Amino acid sequence: MKEKDLLQAVASYGSPLYVYDASKIESQYKRLTAAFKKVKQVKFYYAVKALSNISVLKLMKKLGAGLDTVSIQEVRLGLAAGFDPLSIIYTPNGVSMEELEVAKKLGIQINIDNLSILELFGSRYPNHPVCIRINPHVMAGGNTNISVGHIDSKFGISIHQMPHIERIVANTKMNINGIHMHTGSDILDIDVFLYASEILFEAATHFDTLEFIDFGSGFKVPYKEGDVETNIEELGEKLSERFITFCKEHNKNLTLAFEPGKFLVSEAGQFLAKVNVIKQTTSTVFAHVDSGFNHLIRPMLYGSQHVIKNISNPEGRERFYSVVGYICETDTFATNRRISEIREHDILAMHNAGAYCYSMSSNYNSRYRPAEVLFHKGNYSLIRKRETFEDLIQNQIEIDI
Predict the structure, then answer these.
(1) What InterPro entries would the database entry show (predicted)?
(2) What pLDDT is recorded for position 360?
(3) pTM for this one?
């Protein structure tokens, strides 16, 4: 997407605004499939939590992806988008048995991550195929909030509890058709990922009915020029070779599965915000925009750095700005960042806004959530309307006081 296209989108749909480039999503998906082309059976399940707009889900379906879901609501979004139930994998954490029973009725692939539910589910529904989420006790991820495979993590069944898993499976005679792990997001060290994979391969030898091994995801994307990222091509080469060898050694015809989310949509998204005020203090020049962490929380939550460009004045002299929002507490997108000279009413574009931006947005301070737009085949399409005051109060109930 070019700067003039982004400015036109703001002119048409207002600010703040999320804009997604379908061609970038498609190229990232093709990059994944090319990296693992040596494996006969590969399935990529798009992680819905990254960006759950139904039009984006339909694009993923067209590309050939399945869906990785973590709630019944995400499952139902996938079904509404036209996905076959068998192409949806459901990997919740700490949910009730009642929610798992809803998932069973919907006919999707269930992934269980604790011994208690595994035993209960196996006792009630031994014939329903189930995947088991293993915690390999491997620390991987760019931030403690997104590292989920370490020993203190709430996710998965400890690899050291394999004897307990085997006892439950033997007692209930349940059907284990998959085994799964997810070590965390923003993985840089391929060797760490491959080490965790060896733990999963060993665990896979304990089950005779396996149909797939799911290695999760967590691939890092670049957030700025020169930034490091997961070398998908190298990982694809090394893991494919190891996977093919494992299948031959154990005479298994398995599917290799991944659950990419951020990798597919992060770079496709840009978040556009208008500058309301330029405020000079004794030590800082603030650019106040018409947004806040209620629309893009990642810098405040994870300390992430999103490239910010002034697309209204791209050739202007660079100056240092702290870009802040309108929320009534510390609300910072960038501190002392070199940006082309910013004037009031200029439009700033924040990059890598496709993943975990709208999906983590809120109505904090009773602000409206922005519109979403998809740029596809040279045209913009509105895929979510901007909220209104009626949206804020539609579920509230006034009582006589």
Answers:
(1) Ala_racemase/Decarboxylase_C, DAP_deCOOHase_LysA, De-COase2_C, De-COase2_N, De-COase2_pyr-phos_BS, Orn/DAP/Arg_de-COase, PLP-binding_barrel
(2) 96
(3) 0.93
Q: Residue 160 carries which DSSP code?
A: G
Alpha-carbon torsion (339, 345, 346, 351), positive or negative: positive
> Is 335 within 8 Å of 314 (Cβ atoms)?
no
For tokens 């035993």, the residue is 119
What three-state secondary structure class fits 255? Answer: strand
Write down the pLDDT at residue 152: 64
pLDDT score of 185: 59
Amino acid letter at 236?
G
Q: Is 302 marked as binding a ligand? A: yes
Active-site residue, from 131, 247, 328, 357: 328
Answer yes or no: 328 catalytic.
yes
Residue 135 φ/ψ, nearest 5 degrees = -95, 110
Please indicate if the annotation marks 329 as binding a ligand.
yes
Q: How far apart are CA 46 and CA 61, in angstroms?
A: 9
The reply to whether omega before 16 is within 30° of 0 (cis) is yes
26 labelled binding-site residue: no
Domains delineated in the chain? 36-261 (3.20.20.10), 269-393 (2.40.37.10)
